[in-house]
Design a protein that fits this description.
5-stranded antiparallel sheet; Methylthioribose_kinase; 2 domains; transferase; EC 2.7.1.100; Aminoglycoside 3'-phosphotransferase, Chain: A, domain 2; S-methyl-5-thioribose kinase activity; 3-stranded antiparallel sheet; 410 residues; 11% strand; alpha+beta; Phosphorylase Kinase, domain 1
Length: 410
C-alpha cells in the first residue's frame, strides 16, 4: 500500500520511493541517490538521480510554515500555483523555464526538470562570471509573461478567471510586510540593521515622511493593481544560468499585480551584484570589465524590455482602446515608473529588512559593506521619490553611479 496517500513532510529517505511510485523514468530504486539541496526561505527541495542512466529530477515540497521563520504560516497551495505558472510560462517562453513532470496535490509536491548543469545566478555573479545572453533572455521572459497575461491582450473575462486562480494571499502578505511595511518602521522586531549604518537608516529611512508616504501609495497599488501575472519573486536567486541558457524558477509568489514589480526586482538584484563587485574586486582590468558588463546589463534590462514590450504590443494587442495612438507608450512609461519605485523598495528591504542578500552580507570588510549598503540605500530613495524621471536604462544606471560617486567623496 502506498505511503503517499496522506500528506506528510518528506525527508530524503522518503523521496526515492516517492519518485519510483510516481514516475516512469526511473527503473531501479537501488541505483537512485537523493540529496536535499534547498537553501531557500520557504520550501524543501531534493535532487534524485541515477548515475548510471544519467537521469535526474528535482522534487519540491511545500511545508505549512516558512523555513525562514515559523511565524509565517502558509498554505501549501503555493506549490499548485508554482506548478500551474511554470506550465503556463512554458507555453509563453518555452526555453526559459524548467519542464514540469508532475504536480501532486496530496503530497503538495512538484517534480520538475533538474537544472544541475546550471548555476544559481546570484552565486555566479558573486563569482564575477559574465553571461552574454542574460539581459536578452530575462527581457524576453518578462515582456512575454507580463504583457501576454494582461487585459491589453487577453479576453477580459478569461483574464479575470486567471486572477481568481492565482489569488495567493499568504505569500502576498509576506511581500506586503517584508517589502512594503517593515523596512520603513522602527517598531517591528524583524529588521536587522548593520551597525555602521543603523543611525543613517533611522534618520533617512524611518524618519523620512515623504519617503514613507510614497511607499504607502506603492503598497496599496501592489495590493490592488491586478495588471499582469507576476512571477512575484524574480531575483537573482530565482534564475539558473549557463553561458548558453537561462532558466527562471520558483514562481510560487505568483499573482496578478503591477508589472513593474518583476522588472524592478531584477534591476535591484543586479545592482546588488554591482555593489558586491565594486566592494570586493581590486582595481584593474578584471574589475573594469566585469563592472562594465553589469552596467550594460542593467541598462539593457530596461531598454530591451521596452523595445520588446512595444513590439509585442503591436503584434498581440486585442483591446480596441489599447490601440489608440500613443497609448502603448503611455502604458509603458507607467510600467517603468513602477519599475523604478520597486527597484528602490527591493534595495531597501534587502538591507534593512529580514531577508538579506549574500551579495551584501558576504562583504567581509565592514567599511566596504557600509559603503555598499549606503550606495544602494541612497539610490533607492531616488528610485522611489523620483520614479517618474526613470525612462531609460541610462536613467537607472546614472542614479546608481551618481550615488556611488557622491559617497566616495564624503
Amino acid at each position: 500500500m502506498s505511503k503517499f496517500t496522506k500528506y506528510f513532510l518528506m525527508e530524503s529517505s522518503d523521496v526515492i520511493p516517492y519518485v519510483m511510485e510516481k514516475l516512469s523514468m526511473f527503473e531501479d530504486a537501488q541505483r537512485l541517490q537523493c540529496k536535499e539541496i534547498g537553501d531557500g526561505n520557504l520550501n524543501y527541495v531534493f535532487r534524485v538521480w541515477d548515475e548510471e542512466k544519467g537521469t535526474s529530477v528535482i522534487v519540491k515540497q511545500a511545508g505549512d510554515t516558512a523555513r525562514i521563520s515559523d511565524e509565517f504560516k502558509l498554505s501549501t497551495n503555493r506549490i499548485r500555483i508554482e506548478s500551474d505558472v511554470l506550465q503556463l510560462e512554458g507555453k509563453l517562453v518555452p526555453r526559459l523555464v524548467p519542464d514540469v513532470y508532475l504536480y501532486d496535490d496530496v503530497m503538495n509536491c512538484c517534480v520538475m526538470e533538474d537544472l544541475s548543469d546550471h548555476t544559481i545566478l546570484r552565486t555566479a555573479l558573486m563569482n564575477h562570471q559574465i553571461f552574454p545572453k542574460l539581459a536578452d533572455d530575462l527581457t524576453t521572459f518578462m515582456a512575454n509573461t507580463l504583457l501576454l497575461t494582461s487585459d491589453v491582450v487577453m479576453n477580459h473575462k478569461e483574464k479575470k478567471e486567471l486572477v481568481k486562480n492565482y489569488i495567493n494571499p499568504e505569500l502576498c502578505e509576506i511581500t506586503e510586510d517584508l517589502v512594503y511595511s517593515e523596512p520603513f518602521t522602527d517598531h517591528n522586531k524583524r529588521n536587522e540593521l548593520f551597525p555602521l549604518n543603523e543611525g543613517w537608516i533611522r534618520e533617512h529611512i524611518y524618519s523620512d515622511d515623504e519617503l514613507r508616504m510614497e511607499v504607502a501609495k506603492l503598497k496599496f497599488a501592489f495590493m490592488t493593481n491586478a495588471q499582469a501575472l507576476l512571477h512575484g519573486d524574480l531575483h537573482t536567486g530565482s534564475v539558473f544560468v549557463r553561458k548558453d541558457s537561462t532558466k527562471i524558477i520558483d514562481p510560487e509568489f505568483a499573482f496578478y499585480g503591477p508589472m513593474g514589480y518583476d522588472i524592478g526586482n531584477v534591476v535591484a538584484n543586479l545592482i546588488f551584484a554591482w555593489a558586491n563587485a565594486d566592494a570586493t574586486i581590486g582595481s584593474g582590468v578584471e574589475k573594469d570589465t566585469y563592472m562594465n558588463w553589469l552596467e550594460c546589463t542593467i541598462t539593457d534590462i530596461i531598454d530591451l524590455f521596452s523595445v520588446k514590450f512595444l513590439e509585442a504590443w503591436n503584434v498581440h494587442v486585442t483591446d480596441s482602446m489599447a490601440k489608440e495612438e500613443g497609448f502603448d507608450r503611455w502604458y509603458l512609461q507607467s510600467v517603468l515608473e513602477d519599475t523604478a519605485a520597486v527597484t528602490g523598495l527591493e534595495l531597501i528591504r534587502r538591507i534593512v529588512g529580514l531577508a538579506k542578500v549574500k551579495d551584501i552580507t558576504s562583504i567581509v570588510d565592514e567599511e566596504a559593506r557600509a559603503r555598499a549598503e549606503r550606495i544602494c540605500l541612497q539610490a533607492a530613495k531616488l528610485f522611489i521619490l523620483q520614479a517618474s524621471t526613470h525612462k531609460t536604462g541610462n536613467d537607472f544606471l546614472q542614479t546608481l553611479k551618481t550615488q556611488a560617486l557622491s559617497f566616495s567623496t564624503k
